[in-house]
Amino acid sequence: MVKHKKLAQWIDEMAAMVTPDSTHICDGSQKEYDDMIRITVKEGLATELNKQKLPNCYLFRSDPSDVARVENRTYIASKTKEQAGPTNNWIDPDELKKTMKGLYKGCMKGRTMYVIPFSMGPVGSPISKIGVEITDSPYVVANMHIMTRVGTKVLEVLGETGEFIPCMHSVGKPLEKGETDGGKWPCAPLDKKYISHFPEERTIWSYGSGYGGNALLGKKCLALRIATVMARDEGWLAEHMLILGITNPKGEKKYIAGAFPSACGKTNLAMLIPTVPGWKVETVGDDIAWMKFGKDGRLYAINPEAGFFGVAPGTSMQSNPNAMKAMNRNTIFTNVALTGDKDVWWEGIGYDAPGKVIDWNGNEWEQGKSDKPAAHPNARFTAPAKQCPAVDPAWEDPAGVPISAFLFGGRRPSTVPLVHQSFSWNHGVFLGSIVGSEVTAAALDVKAGTVRRDPFAMLPFCGYHMGDYFKHWINIGSKTSSDKLPKIFYVNWFRKTADGKWLWPGYGENSRVLKWVFERCNGEGKAVETEIGFMPTVDAIDRTGLSDVSEQDMKELLTVDRKGWLAEIDLIKQHYANFGDHLPSELKAELEALEKRLK
Ligand code: SAT
Ligand code: MN
Known about the structure:
Elements: H1 5-18, E1 22-25, H2 30-42, E2 46-48, E3 58-60, E4 74-76, H3 81-84, H4 93-104, E5 112-120, E6 129-135, H5 138-147, E7 149-150, H6 152-158, E8 165-170, E9 194-198, E10 203-207, H7 212-215, H8 218-234, E11 237-239, E12 241-247, E13 253-259, H9 266-270, E14 280-285, E15 289-293, E16 299-302, E17 307-311, H10 321-326, E18 332-334, E19 337-338, E20 344-345, E21 357-358, E22 364-365, E23 380-384, E24 401-409, E25 419-421, H11 425-433, E26 436-438, E27 451-453, H12 466-476, E28 487-491, H13 511-521, E29 527-529, E30 534-536, H14 551-557, H15 562-577, H16 585-598
Parallel strand pairs: 1-5, 3-18, 4-9, 6-8, 8-10, 13-24, 24-28
Antiparallel strand pairs: 2-3, 5-6, 5-7, 9-10, 11-15, 12-13, 12-14, 15-16, 16-24, 17-23, 18-23, 19-20, 21-22, 25-28, 26-27, 29-30
Helix pairs in contact: 2-5, 11-16, 15-16
The chain binds sulfoacetic acid and manganese (II) ion.
Manganese (II) ion binds next to loops.
C-alpha cells in the first residue's frame, strides 16, 4: 500500500474527481507489463507481431487525430503570462484548472485508474527525480515501463515524505456501462486536449491524448518543461540533448552532448557507427540530458530515460543499424505498417514493402498504388535502451558522465558551415540561442526556405521565459573555471550546393567532424580564427577513405559566407526582438560583436 501520506491523499483526491471503476498501483513487474499488453490485445488495440522475427513485440494504431505532440494545446500555466514568455501558450492557472476539472470529472468511468511511480534517472541517484503518473491507459503504462524506471522500488526510495511530481493523465474517453473501446484508440477531440504544466506547483495535467509526449508524462512534460524550471532554481541544466561517448584509437574517451531540432537525426547521431578507422561511438541517450556540476567543477550528464521513443520511418540497417537491433524484441510499435507475416514495415526501412501490407490506418496498402505513406511519418518504436548494441557502459551511472563538448545544429542548406567552434562560453550560448532549421512549404505553413528558430532545440520544451533561460545558460558559465566548461560547437550536416546537391554525406561520416571536436577538446585539431568562430582548416577534417567529398567541396563547407551571415544578422535581430528586456545583455553584445567582425 501507499505509505506516503501526501501521495495517498493525491491519489484519493484524483480518484474522487475521475471516478474510475478500480485503482491499480503499479509494481513495475514483468507480469504487470504482460497484463497491460494482454488487456490491449483483447480490446483490439494491439496486435502481436511475428514471434520468430520480433519476439514480444506489439503494434498499436492510434486514432488518426492523435499521432503527435500537440504544441498548440500545450500550456505553461505560470502565475503570469510574462513568466511563460513569448514562446509558450499561457492560460491563467486557476482558469485552466477549472476548465480541466470539468473535463476530468467522471472521465475514468468504466476504466481502471493506474498509478505509476516512476524515476527519471537511475532509481536512487542524486540527480534523479521521482514522478507519479496517474493514467487510464494501459498503453501508457506499458510505454512508461520501457521509457522510465517504474514500480515498487521507486515507492521505496520515495519513503513516507520524499518529493514527487504529480502527473495526471486521462485519455478523456469515459465508458458507459457495458461499453468497450472495441478496437478504437480512445482519445478526446483536439479542442478538448490539454497538455498543461503548472511550474510553481511542479504539477502536470494532461487530458485527451494517448500519444507520445502528450501522455508519457515523464518525457517532455517532466524531464524538460518542469525540469527546466527546477534546473533554473537549483543551478543545473535540463536539455533536449543526445549524449554520446566517443573513444579514439588510443582508448581515450570523451562525452559529447548535442541539441538539434526534430528531424535533424539526433537518434542517428547518438548511435552512429564511425567510418574513421579505430574510433568508437557509444550511446548514453538520444533525447534528454540532465547536467549538474560535479565536485571537480565539470558538468556531468545523465540520461533521465530508460528507453528510446524513436521515429521509425527513415530508420534502416543503412541509416541506423544500432536502432534496428535495439527494436528487434520487447518493443512497442505505434502507427507503422503491418506485413502479411506480421512483420513491421515503413518508408525508408531499406527495402520495398513485401506485397500487400496493412497501413497505419488499418487499410490494405500496396507500394506504388497509393500517394499516402503506409506508416505515419511520426510512427514510433518504444525500445529499451539496454537493447541498443552500442549502449555506453556508463549509461546508467548515477554520477553521470563528464561532458567535454556541446553541439548545436539544424538543417541549413546554406550559410552555416559544416562545423565551427565558439570563441567563449557566452559566444557558445549565442550559437545555441540562434539555432534554426530550414523548413519546406510542405512541412509547415511557412515560406519554403524560411528558417524556423528553435533556440537550443527547446522551443516547445522550455517551461519558462526563453529569455530568462538564455540568462540561465550565461550564469552556468560563471559557476566554474572556463577550462572546465564544455567547449561549444555548431554543426551543420545539411549543406547543399547552389544546384541543390548534398555537400556532405552525413550519417557515419559525421564521425569525421566528431573527431575534430574531440581533438579541439584536447587542445589539438588545426583551426583558423574567422569572423564567426574557430573553423577547421581544410585539411583538419580527416577525409581518409572518403571519396565523395572533394577538396573543393571541403572548401565550400568550411568558408565564411559573409553575405549570408550579414543577412542572418537581420534575422537574428528579428528573433531576439521577441524576448524584449528578458534578452541577456551578453547575447546582445555577442550579436553586435559578430556584426562588427563581419563588416
Ligand atoms: O512525442 S514525443 O514528445 O515523445 C517525441 C518527440 O516529439 O520528440
Ligand atoms: Mn525530442
